[in-house]
Description:
Elements: E1 5-9, H1 22-35, E2 39-42, H2 54-68, E3 74-77, H3 83-96, E4 100-104, H4 113-127, E5 131-135, H5 137-140, H6 146-152, E6 158-163, H7 168-177, E7 182-185, H8 191-196, E8 201-203, H9 211-223, H10 227-244, H11 249-259, H12 276-297
Parallel strand pairs: 1-2, 1-8, 2-3, 3-4, 4-5, 5-6, 6-7, 7-8
Helix pairs in contact: 1-2, 2-3, 3-4, 4-6, 9-10, 10-12, 11-12
Amino acid sequence: MNFDGIFTPAITPLAADGSIDFAAFDAVLEHLVASGVHGIIIGGSTGEYYAHTAEERRALAERAHAVIGGRLPLVIGTGATRTEDAVAYAVHAKSIGADAILVTTPPYALPTEQEIAHHVMTIDKAADLPIMLYNYPARMGVSMGDEFFAAIKGTKNIVAIKESSGDTLRLHALASQYPEIQLSCGWDDQALEFFAWGARSWVCAGSNFVPGEHVALYEACVLEKDFAKGRAIMSAMLPLMDFLENGKFVQSIKAGSEIIGLKTGGVRAPLLPLDENEKDALTAVIAELKSKVAAVAGSTVDA
């Protein structure tokens, strides 16, 4: 599978009673399909998978596959502390016809790199689907380093990695030492650097509510190879990225989605939604971003 482009980890809307609002979820998916993004990820942290039951995760994956209907690649997250649970999510993804799976390090358990490799290869053996690895040591407590990559070398289904360490030296190492694994930006304010180092993919939660602007940066850097234009777009997007790193990431993504008219229903505990002052500030950031990117990218960005 080719992971080129903007892959959106979709939000999960909630009803007033806290249950999943599947009609609103359908609307989110239709919005993303129409927006010009290149793929959709279900069951990522932006989708609040950690706050879902196993039954809810399976239901969301099934609903996404039915709604998307092959119009865009569908990637299913398999994140879990127990390898057995991650395998079950991966096997289910295979059974419904998902295009690929997202495989992260198990949180909290603090496995060694050899143990992470065993976790990943166990999932691969069970599901036999294209894999995008997800390296996010700040959340998971451990990192996919050189020992890990040596252990998984030659595993044919491992085709990409969402790199979210925030470490530019790690970006350089991945680009230069592991060219067989497609590099995807997982640290938003380094998107320009990722593209400069050959990445052709960006997994970006902000594309839930400003998809055209994220696509514009991808097109400028990857398709047009116009990094002067890319720098101008990136400069316009940095205030949003700063806002999203205020310690309320998922809350801000859902608030942004609400601002553009999507029904979100807030977030699940233990998180709490943004207050009105925070929403007003985010509204202003989005408006300025859209204006500035439109001035650079012109008609390529939807109004």
